[in-house]
Design goal:
- The termini are far apart.
- By secondary structure, the protein is mainly alpha-helical.
- It contains four helices and no strands.
- Helix 1 (18-26) packs across helix 4 (53-69).
- It has a domain at 33-78.
- The chain is globular.
């Protein structure tokens, strides 16, 4: 009986909200420091506090690459919805 082996090249981000949250944070803050962004996310969102620091930091690094190098907001599925009538 063969067991399925999961193969991960580390290129996927499991949390779809990570990129938009980093982009939102980057509007008023410097997002070039991975440690600062990781700490901000862990302070701000309960679900990130429960994750182990090492693997979560790797996810943040990958998300930052998308935001900084590939222009994450240019992808429609990653855009934040902006309220045009909110104060």
């Amino acid at each position: 009986m063969k067991q399925k082996q999961s193969k991960s090249n580390g290129s996927s981000i499991f949390d779809r909200l990570l990129v938009p949250r980093i982009e939102s944070h980057g509007l008023n803050n410097d997002i070039t420091d991975v440690d600062e962004v990781t700490e901000y996310l862990r302070r701000s969102y309960k679900e990130y506090q429960r994750q182990k620091t090492g693997p979560f930091k790797k996810q943040v690094e990958r998300a930052l690459e998308i935001v900084l190098n590939e222009g994450g907001a240019s992808k429609p599925e990653l855009r934040l919805q902006v309220c045009r009538v909110c104060p």
